[in-house]
Amino acid sequence: MRAAWNGVEFTLVDTGGLIPTLREAIPEAIREQVDIAVRESAAVLFVVELGTGVTDLDQIIAKRLRQAFASKTILVVNKAESAKAAYEIPAYMQLGLGKPYAVSALHGKGVGDLLEAALDTARESAASGSGTAVDAEGLRVAIVGRPNAGKSSLVNKLLKQNRMIVDSVPGTTRDAVDSPLEIDGRKIVLIDTAGLRKKARVKKNDLEYYSNMRALDSIDRCDVCVLVVDVSVGIGVQDMRILRKIFESRKGVALAWNKWDILPKDHKTFDNLVADVRHEYQELRNVPMISLSALTGQRVSSLMDVVFGVKERMTASVGGADFENKIFDWVRAHPHPVTPGKEVRFLGAKQITAAFPLFRFFVTHHDLVSVSYERFLANKIYDTYDFAGCPVVLEFRPIARAGGQKADGVTGGD
Ligand SMILES: Nc1nc2c(ncn2[C@@H]2O[C@H](COP(=O)(O)OP(=O)(O)OP(=O)(O)O)[C@@H](O)[C@H]2O)c(=O)[nH]1
Ligand SMILES: [Mg+2]
Asked: Is 168 close to ligand 1, i.e. is its CB under 6 Å away?
């Protein structure tokens, strides 16, 4: 939730209650939940409740916060509206998190001071860099997909060690976990993410709301995504949503058909499958695909070749004059539909240096370029150059500034 206080904007995240699920695993479960909740926060408010006294659970949570996040934790004692509060509050000093802030959320008492303190803490931890994760070096590859697709299994296979928690229960992975590795001298950071379910099915106070957010955040922070699809389940609406999110974030993508081992097949299966889904989903036409098995390891070692191929293409250059001539040819052969008096005339085109394939077109009435015409041009670029797995982005600008200028422009039909 975005909020503001005295002109400072910040994101407030309510973690929901930290409740251990298994009695014998309390400390471990709490540790995990606390870590997931607070690792990337700039300030942490640990809220306890007056009236119950200091509980075992408070002690366990406080211990973890002291160990790992002491400098950014603020202890808050809530429900401090009663007259007795002043006598009871000192007991909370034993949690070792400094002097508690007494507030009454109900009456708004003490909240202003608390926010002041929280923002001071946030500023300090932002300045010292502890509010943000330190990035490991290498090509960042986020492994994304629906729950149970086999993302963690795939990461494990790639790491050749069991670092991730794998389980047959969907939703096993809660956090986005970074694992650095090196393949043939190439540095990679693999990011295992939580399975992405439909938003509507994720309740706000659920830990899953949180892991969803972090999986989406991993897409923004990576270079190339691997979209893992369980071949026995097939492509669904949710996969297409994830793909759209990847392209909106201007990231590269490769699709891994996982669990290939359980599919009865002949030598044509893969080609047929690819042809079918590309026929059904136009967005998949330019996405490179590989079939593999995270269980047996079949073709897992080839996946990174596909990923590095995407990475190369993300910044590939098409060459100036030749590109512009092609554009003019396409426009001539397939002119933009005419709006009387408002002719869309192409004056120039060039590729712009960016982290993804970006093309700028200089056009009269640039705001009238239709969506279908934009798609036509993008498809032409995909068909002519190799941008498989990359988001091809087109920009339309009113005038040509430097280079690429053609006095009369091209409207087609000559
Ligand atoms: N037969 C077969 N089973 C697989 C394969 N990959 C994963 N599985 C099984 O699928 C189940 C889910 O695997 P995970 O790796 O936990 O899946 P995930 O995508 O990380 O799941 P979440 O973290 O819950 O989103 C486990 O029972 C795996 O053993 C595969 O290639 N073949
Ligand atoms: Mg997982």
From this structure: yes
